[in-house]
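Q: How would the structure tokens look for this protein?
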Amino acid sequence: MKKIGSFLIESILFSLFLLITTISGGSINQEVNFESSLKIEVKKNLQELLSEEDTNGDKRITIEDHFVEGDRGDRIFWITTLDGKKIKVQGTYYLSNLLQELSLFLEKGESIAVLDLKKVFENPVDRISRMIKDYYWDGLTRRVDSSNIAKLLEDEKNKTQDGRNYIYVPKWDVPAVNYFQGIIASFPDLHLTLMLVPENITPQWFESIQKKHGILSLALEKNSEGQIQGKPFVVPGGRFNEMYGWDSYFEALGLLEDGRVDLAKSMTENLAYEINMYGKILNANRTYYLTRSQPPFLTSMALAVYEKMPKSPESILWLKNMFRAAVKEYKEVWMGKKHLTDIGLSRYLDEGTGPCPEVEPGHFDYIFQIFARLYDMDPKVFEVKYRKKLIFVPALDLFFIHDRSMRESGHDKTWRWHDRCADFVTVDLNSLLYKYETDIAYAVKYTFANDFECDGVKQDFKEWFERSEQRKTLMNKYMWDEENHSFFDYDCQKGEREVYYSATAFYPLWAGLVTQDQAGLIVEKMIPLLEQAGGIVASTEESRGPISAEHPQRQWDYPYGWAPHQMIVWKALFDYGYVADSRRLAYRWLYTIVRNARDYNCTIPEKFDVEKRTHKVFAEYGNVGTNFSYITKEGFGWMNASFKKGLTMLDNRLLEKLRQLIPPEFLFQKK
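A: Here is the predicted structure in token form.
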């Protein structure tokens, strides 16, 4: 109640501030109306705007430009038109919009341009939505083909000791092998080497490429002109320049809201290609991810795309192909001997060894320091010797298996498993597998009319329903906690539930696994624990524990909130009839997005501190999507999607309330 009260007070105070600002902002000159378009000199206005209002020199206009020593910014800028008129723009948000529009002209090479005032004085809700649809999705779209290979190779993660760039292709995908051999011949300056991925990826083969990591090819297709090209996909953004596993599902939900069915369909096909060619949906399409999958969402993704497709024999065949890949993934990965435990439930388990190579330098300093003390060695010396396998440390080997497995969960990193992830069967994974089982059962019976085969074996919907019922029974046996009214991960080593309050408690509701009574208990227990001013938090502060040098802050714990958790919770609550709760939480998250975009030059980040409702996050990797000049051209993949999906959750009252975060009045006048 204290947090909610604080939230309401701040909202009221902010509304009063806006009213005062509007009243004192100057009159609106009727000669320049909302429909006005102004012909301007781009560079002149851009340079003057930055000189006057970008007081901290970061090539953006944010609220921080008005809190620096020697502040020059008065939040007022006079646009100069070609015919000598002066038009006033007032307010940080509107000035940042002006900067973005001018930068787009500059990017197109336009020295003289017609400025659309509607875009400068656009309501932030409308602007964010439009920018995602018109710019961000395209800015995040990639292909692994000749048109995009040079851009992909610019990524710092491609650097190798021998200076070569490596593209890896499944050896049995002969058309792809021939295609990429042609690229190598056509682009010698790329220093590209083709490597073949064997059907059975052994530890020996994986060890042989440790200094030659590279990009993994994805599916190819022919365009309307008969030319071969890569199937497009959306990347998360920033340093993430690959197609990621579970990100793709949430990104697809946003794409579908924007009518980008073909792109969402293509991404689904790329995930199926990964299963068929690499044995699993990969963490991302780079070689060092070949040992690791990510949370399974393929059936949900395929059904969401299929819903938007015209119904025909072709669309049924497409869905069957996607489900065949899902069945293969289900049986060979999640129900395979490495992921399936003795109690009949599944766990996350990366099959690689040693420190994962994708992390930034220094990421594992804390663990090397702990073990170096045990061996009475300098931490740097210890790390070098360990990496070169000059010393044998079984306990550290086990730590890295658990660390890698945590990354397979997508929740990298969290204290939820106390650095023993592979010892747990988890609520989120088994809920997702229950959803696979029920999705396949319903599709076989109803969509495919009992006409569905995988590897020549006819699938029986009854068998899939029985699988789902067995999983539900086991989850209730091992994971349901009657005293704490929630599902919790089960520690197979200790033989007990781990009571760690996390947003993943809502996965069973999202999957449709729980009874209405259980849903009520979960909602009553977990919403008060996890609801913050800015949305649902990843875990409670108490569960995370106190922060120290040996227990550092991790990004998938309190006080951080993530887009996939929000979308899971919204749907979970809505499906079980908790519509008001679902809408309230969606509003809190969208409010956080809009407020940060308003104050920080339309910044759309990877995650938020939902307690403070800020994108200023410094744990582990910082916050992707916050580093740009003039204008963001990408946002962040699943954050974009959460905004699009969140808007569909709001009723008219909440949508109007969100739009009033900045009144639609525009403050300008002729000088």
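Residues 1-32, 665-671 have pLDDT under 50 and may be disordered.

The first strand starts at residue 37 and ends at 41.

Upvote if useful.
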